[in-house]
Amino acid sequence: MTLYEELQARGLIAQVTDEKLIADLINNGKATFYIGFDPTADSLHVGHFMALCFMKRLQMAGNKPIALIGGGTGMIGDPSGRSDMRQMMTVETVKHNCDRFKEQMSKFIDFSEGKALMINNVDWLADLNYIEVLREVGSHFSVNRMLAAECYKQRMEKGLTFLEFNYMIMQAYDFYELFERFGCNLQFGGDDQWGNMLAGTELIRRKLGKDASAMTITLLLNSEGKKMGKTQLGAVWLDPNKTTPFDFYQYWRNIADADVLKCIRMLTFLPLEEINEMDSWEGSQLNRAKEILAYELTKMVHSEEEAVKAQESARALFSQGNAAEMPTAELSGAEFAEGPVDILTLLHKSGLVASKSEARRAVEQGGVSAGGEKVTDIHASYPADIFAGEGLILKKGKKNFRRIVIK
Predict the structure, then answer these.
(1) How far apart are the C-alpha atoms of 347 and 119, rounded to whole Å?
(2) Span 108-148, pLDDT tens digits
(3) How far apart (Å, rounded) are the C-alpha atoms in residues 355 and 352?
(4) Number of alpha carbons in the 13 Å side-chain half-sphere of residue 188
(5) CA–CA gap between residue 226 and residue 224 (Å, rounded)
(6) Which pTM value belongs to this model?
(7) 3-state SS, residue 286
(8) What own/partner pairs with CB < 8 Å and gap ≥ 24 does 268-276 have?
(9) Dihedral angle sign, alpha carbons of residues 219, 222, 227, 231
(10) Nearest-angstrom CA–CA distance, 172 and 17
């Protein structure tokens, strides 16, 4: 099986512009490709992780990745999939986030000499002359075609700013610069980026008259990652200070039965033959598949040691009701200045629920326990001394736990 055929078998490819040529490039290690990462936070998340796994696969086959950090486009904000405008970031914030991205990406991609590049598009976008952009780049874009692009449709309903409207042009210009500077001949991204990516291909062909030198390929996994990387508690981050290795493991351990094999195919490096044997797994066997998925991904992101600890803790948690590595929430002593703290406040401050109204529903529906005992009274409260030592363990539903301690 060729690399391209394996990517198809793993469910990674959604659309391509020139399949035969693209397959030849990546199968023979001749692709110099890029994926863009806008620094909208100070950590990569699960959506980025999916893209990094893809980059790693291609690099292992001899292809050269370019991780493009959007220090420039991040100042504008991608409107794709958005119903409102992204919050504007300062130059200092964008730079800080870019630095954090570089640090985290190096765990997945080999950036040693000649094997990969990490580029920041602020290098060329920051010094662009506005008149020059209008004449040399803007003249190649049809406003009618841009407005018809899927990435703008949602924003059009609420009002698309001129700032955001320029994002497609900037992303297209990125591909042109990478093509000119580094011989980049492929761009990859989620299927929500298709319109932006086609714009880049078209810009190169219009400016340089290239018929097949600039191609695009879209991957279902990026946009899937944006959806899958969210929980009621927020994004699933790769930074252990934002999402602990245990929580990261638990996120994958708790995914839906219908998604587990799809994720194993897309994200792990297990042989397809081994994965295909899991197709007939049912019931408790799917729980084993989830453990495999959670372990493999936690090992990749955080280390084998952390994966082992998370798996052992998770097993202990469900078999005994406690674990050394359980996620912990801290309360200050001031919280108890007026006496015991009620269960609704504890659930909310622990992060197990998003609001006190959600906490009330959870208690009323019988889905909450504290210290191993089911909580049925929404007015139940707990004094400070009960949190001494190991703290108080809260449980919501079957799989969501927090240890509450006083700092």
Answers:
(1) 43
(2) 999 999 999 999 999 998 888 888 888 888 888 877 777 77
(3) 9
(4) 28
(5) 5
(6) 0.75
(7) helix
(8) 268/292, 268/293, 268/296, 268/297, 269/57, 269/296, 270/296, 272/1, 272/6, 272/9, 272/10
(9) positive
(10) 16
